[in-house]
Design brief:
Length: 245
């Protein structure tokens, strides 16, 4: 069970997030703070595994709290929860586990908790802070922001560009598909069609027989090229757990 802290200067936001966190069986004790100063008092007094921090709070901001947490002997994982998209780059510079946009959706929060659990496991295994996630700079509406590569479900070729599809949006980047195929292979991305590169961890269903082989990633059903079918089979077999002989 994970002990968490919520810090937000708006009480309704604290209560709503506490309710959502409480629905997840992995969450144990939930501490609440409505100011940065109160959050510090709780963190110095109580063992907390993860902190969900609003960025814009009077006095000590969420970023200030994150910097303070880096000096703790037992450093909690931390997630920023905010309505402000512009702070993502600074958040990940501070080694945040995740960056949630308000209003928080239940399924998105579930993924964030999973990342917290994974980061705790990595920290225990290495006796160090968890590795930072791979970030990608994208442009949306004239604004550059950072997204996590492991949020990308599949990539679609669009001429000299590539469109990165996540669960929440899609982003156009000026990188040829062939470059992404080579650079992201070790991260579990595999070419399934001349127009598509998919992230194997996000694949939910495959149908490789018949006249029209397809693969399902999130809500998208994508075609599989006959030429690339053998390579996809090999990658799927390599990712399939096997019983010990």
């Amino acid at each position: 069970m994970i002990s968490v802290l919520i810090a937000d200067d708006e009480q309704p936001a604290v209560d709503e997030l506490a309710f959502l966190l409480g629905q997840d069986p992995r969450i144990g004790t939930i501490h609440r703070a409505t100011s940065g100063a109160e959050a510090i008092r709780i963190l110095t007094r109580e063992p907390v595994d993860a902190a969900f921090l609003d960025i814009h709070m009077p006095g000590l901001s969420g970023f200030d709290l994150a910097r303070a947490l880096q000096r703790f002997e037992h450093r909690p994982a931390f997630v920023f929860v905010t309505a402000d998209e512009e702070g993502a780059l600074e958040a990940f510079d501070l080694a945040a586990v995740d960056y949630l946009l308000k209003p928080v959706r239940t399924e998105r929060l579930h993924r964030s908790i999973t990342r917290v659990v994974e980061s705790m496991g990595q920290a225990q295994a290495t006796d160090a802070a968890p590795a930072r996630p791979e970030m990608v700079a994208v442009t949306l509406g004239g604004t550059t922001r950072m997204i996590r590569r492991d949020d990308v479900r599949y990539v679609q070729a669009q001429g000299d560009y590539a469109r990165l599809h996540t669960d929440e949006a899609s982003y156009l980047v000026r990188v040829p598909m062939s470059d992404l195929e080579r650079q992201w292979a070790e991260a579990g991305f595999v070419r399934v069609h001349r127009s598509y590169l998919v992230a194997l961890p996000h694949v939910t269903r495959v149908r490789l027989g018949g006249d029209r082989p397809t693969i399902v990633v999130g809500q998208a059903e994508l075609p599989v090229s006959r030429r690339l079918l053998p390579g996809l089979r090999e990658r799927l077999e390599a990712a399939t757990p096997r019983a010990r002989p």
